[in-house]
Specification:
It is built from 12 helices and 12 strands. The N terminus is likely disordered. Belongs to the bacterial solute-binding protein 2 family. InterPro entries: AraF (IPR026266), Bact_Solute-Bind_Prot2 (IPR050555), Peripla_BP/Lac1_sug-bd_dom (IPR001761), Peripla_BP_I (IPR028082). One of its GO terms (molecular function) is carbohydrate binding.
């Protein structure tokens, strides 16, 4: 019965598609020829070259192979690319997509396009916001519990400061911020509050606003802050993810600070952190709160598949948790999380 509904929807879509303009029509004819019974979904990510997203898309593809559906992996680094990716998916006969958007404010435009094509959408990692900046409740979402994971970062930094016997009054915090992205704000706020709870002086926290969520933008944001606050010898660093903390750590190295004077703690637990932990000598990158990108990729892809084939709508909002990994135990934690 469900399968019949699915096939009927597919046929309707195919006819609608044939009535569309020439570019899409050519592509869709190819899709019709190639069409088999397998359900097809898209998996669009904002940074396809980042280890977190590579693993997430890989995991989605794997669950598709296990359950028998096809996953088309696409990059969507700006609004234009995302909209073309959706057109492309539609032309290929996809019934929906999972997306981590390049800008959460694109939510209404993306949903508009998806609704025109009758495609189902789940967001992963970064949740859409509406024109008032509120989460778009109608779109199922799975992402990390930003505030709690941020708190784990702050607690890990405070514990390591104590282990190194640092006097908090003489330590500066480099808070690499991204105020455009709600999950980033949650994460850095959680970390800040945990540090303050542990007795870190608020006046020693300095903001470095980054333009993006990658290492290069964090490096550019961090460098001038370090130069302005040359009176501090000990630094702690936190941000929305480990790529950004690594940018901050690289900036401290360039500035001439030694690894033992820096405590950076990231978030993700992806290949970026594994590469850093695998270096011969320790760096200022002390650890990272690892979240399972494997689980994020698998769960969202499977949820979308069930939604399409069984009409089972996924939970409105799923929040996932994390575990601290350091240079000492990263391999064990990696295995535990199936990364
Ligand atoms: C955001 C960050 C990514 C990752 C993801 C879960 O999209 O930019 O690095 O932390 O959330």
């Amino acid at each position: 019965m469900r399968l019949t509904t699915h096939l009927t929807t597919n046929l309707t879509k195919t006819f609608t598609r044939l009535a569309l303009g020439s570019a899409i029509m050519v592509a869709s004819l190819g899709a019709v020829q190639a069409q088999d019974d397998e359900v097809k979904i898209g998996f669009i990510v904002k940074k396809p070259e980042q280890a977190w997203f590579i693993n997430e898309q890989r995991a989605a593809t794997e669950v598709g192979e296990e359950l028998g559906f096809d996953v088309v992996r696409l990059g969507g680094e700006d609004g234009q690319q995302v909209l073309s990716a959706i057109d492309n998916l539609y032309a290929q006969g996809a019934d929906g997509f999972v997306i981590c958007p390049p800008d959460v404010r694109l939510g209404p435009a993306i949903m508009n396009r998806a609704n025109q094509y009758d495609m189902k959408v789940i967001t992963v990692d970064d949740r859409f916001v509406n024109s008032s900046g509120e989460p778009m409740e109608g779109v199922p979402h799975l992402g990390m519990s930003g505030y709690k994971i941020g708190q784990q970062v702050g607690e890990a930094i405070a514990a390591e400061m104590e282990a190194r016997g640092w006097n908090p009054e003489e330590v500066a915090a480099l808070r690499i911020t991204n105020d455009e992205l709600p999950t980033a704000v949650e994460r850095t706020t959680g970390a800040t509050n945990a540090l303050l709870d542990a007795g870190f002086p608020e006046d020693n926290i300095f903001d470095a606003p980054q333009q993006n969520s990658d290492t290069a933008s964090a490096f550019s944001a961090a460098s001038p802050v370090l130069a302005q606050r040359g009176d501090y010898e000990h630094w702690v660093i936190y941000a929305l993810n480990e790529e950004s903390v690594l940018g901050g750590v690289r900036a401290t190295e360039q500035y001439g600070l030694k690894a033992e004077d820096v405590i950076g703690v990231g978030i993700n637990g992806s290949g970026a952190a594994f590469a850093e932990f695998s270096r011969n000598d320790p760096t200022g990158f002390h650890g990272t709160v690892a979240v399972s990108s494997t689980m994020h990729g698998r769960q969202t892809a499977e949820d979308l598949y069930r939604w399409i084939t069984e009409d089972q709508e996924p939970p409105a909002n799923t929040e996932t948790s994390g575990v601290l990994m350091t240079r000492e135990d990263w391999q064990t934690v990696r295995e535990e999380l199936g990364l």
